[in-house]
Design a protein that fits this description.
This is Aspartokinase. By secondary structure, the chain is of the alpha/beta class. The chain is built from 14 helices and 16 strands. Helix 1 crosses helix 3. The chain binds aspartic acid.
């Protein structure tokens, strides 16, 4: 059995957190490959080391004093080393980093040092071998992740090792310079390592006990989700639910490796298992509810539109030509509506209107702004009758006006459009009808 374990920033924010991580790793010999993030926040008002590194580098680059912030970064690492009682001194590394900052090594390099240094500490603490991610994670010259080259070389490198620490978040470009994933990217590294070693499971340790059915800022104490499929997760994360980096599912998905989200502070909790597929019956018809505010809709109406071949394509090409991507397109007999992100749309609004007039000569074009979209997601919906009906009646009871409803053909999700101000009420009502009412 091989497990790849990734620990997030809050799990590695202090020596006390490192000790919890050490206990977790030592409790199971199959936890052989470890991917650490940089130290995160110890308290709500604390700084993440990654943010400090960006700030420090920006100061160096713009000729501002940077000594204090660089010292704060060093202190963060030194206090971890001291707290763990390690025989390790990073002064040489700090010196090299300062030199490279002054030589303008770039923001990617700067940010990556958070994981790099934490990886060295972790390897020393566990007695595992340290592998610099720059040697095994590759990007192409445009900064796109090179998955096949990485998988080949990483698999080869790790095949003879019992265990190793591979820092998250970064790799290298063909010219050898450092390149990072987008923020939160250590999740991706963990997934890449899991694929390369053909792990049985990719454990992603964080500070929550898995995914919750919905946002705890909207519903008090929502239930955790015990099992979720990749596809359900994708729908929920796209709609704003965040625990894991969106791109982290792709490498493991290729190999059908499950991801287990676990809580470093409560390792006894079951967490959430993300799987390719499962015949475990979901407890509830829905798996999760997520949503986002800030959409607008553009509705075109034209008598006999349904008979006009190419109408939809012509309308959508207006959006395409303006570089706008759409979210949903519910349509009626003589109407077609396009949902789009409001902040992208505002500056191009008039071009869209004139473009549509030119393209299809509609009878009217109507705009509506400040809309929210809610995704109700669940593999259980396929076999349950009346899901849409239950959503509608719950929303009617809560006096929420439904502006749009769109059921994906996978029957995995139902998307509902409501006004921004009804968003929270709507999410609560849906949660209550499917979850609270069935507990
Ligand atoms: N340290 C990086 C960040 O703060 C990457 C990560 O933690 O996954 O975004």
């Amino acid at each position: 059995m091989i497990k790849v374990v990734k620990f997030g920033g809050s799990s590695l924010a202090s020596s006390k957190q490192f000790q919890k991580v050490g206990d977790i790793i030592r409790a199971d010999r199959s936890r052989r490959f470890v991917v650490p993030s940089a130290p995160g926040k110890r308290t709500k008002t604390d700084d993440k080391v990654t943010d400090l590194l960006y700030r420090c580098y920006d100061a160096v680059e713009s000729g501002q004093p940077y000594g204090k912030i660089f010292q704060t970064i060093q202190d963060r690492y030194n206090s971890i080393i001291e707290g763990l009682g390690l025989n390790l001194n990073l002064d040489f590394e700090f010196k090299k980093i300062e030199e490279n900052f002054n030589a303008k090594a770039g923001r990617h390099y700067a940010a990556s040092r958070g994981e790099y240094l934490n990886g060295i500490i972790m390897a020393n603490y566990l007695g595992y071998e340290f592998i610099d991610a720059a040697d095994v994670i590759f990007f192409d010259e445009n900064g796109n992740f090179d998955s096949e080259k990485t998988n080949e070389e990483l698999a080869e490198r790790l095949s003879t090792m019992d265990n190793a620490v591979i820092p998250g978040f970064y790799g290298s470009l063909p010219d050898g310079s450092i390149h990072t994933f987008s923020r939160g990217g250590s999740d991706i590294t963990g997934s890449i390592v899991a694929r390369a070693v053909r792990a049985d499971v990719y454990e992603n340790w964080t500070d929550v006990s898995g995914f919750l059915v919905t946002d705890p800022r909207i519903v008090e104490d929502p239930l955790p989700i015990d099992t979720i499929t990749y596809r359900e997760l994708r729908e929920l994360s796209y709609m704003g639910a965040s625990v894991l980096h969106e791109d982290a599912i792709f490498p493991v998905r290729k190999e059908g490796i499950p991801i287990h989200i676990m809580n470093t502070n409560r390792p006894q909790d079951p967490g959430t298992l993300i799987v390719e597929n499962t015949c475990r019956k979901p407890h509830y018809t829905i798996t999760g509810i997520a949503g986002k505010k800030g959409f607008c809709s553009i509705t075109t109406e034209k008598a006999m539109m349904n008979a006009e071949i190419g109408y939809g394509r012509k309308v959508l090409s207006v959006f395409e030509d303006l570089g706008l991507s759409f979210e949903h397109i519910p349509s009626g007999i003589d109407t077609m509506t396009v949902f789009i992100h409001q902040d992208e749309f505002v500056n191009k609004e008039q071009q869209v209107i004139s473009g549509i007039h030119r393209a299809v000569h509609p009878d009217s074009i109507e705009l509506e702004s400040d809309l929210a979209l809610i995704a109700v997601v669940g593999r259980g919906m396929k076999s349950a009758r009346g899901t849409a009906g239950r959503i509608f009646s719950a929303l009617a009871h809560a006096r929420v006006n439904v502006k749009m409803i769109d059921q994906g053909s996978s029957e995995l999700n139902i998307i509902i459009g409501v006004r921004n101000e009804d968003f929270e009420t709507a999410v609560k009502a849906i949660y209550d009808i499917f979850i609270s009412a069935s507990i």
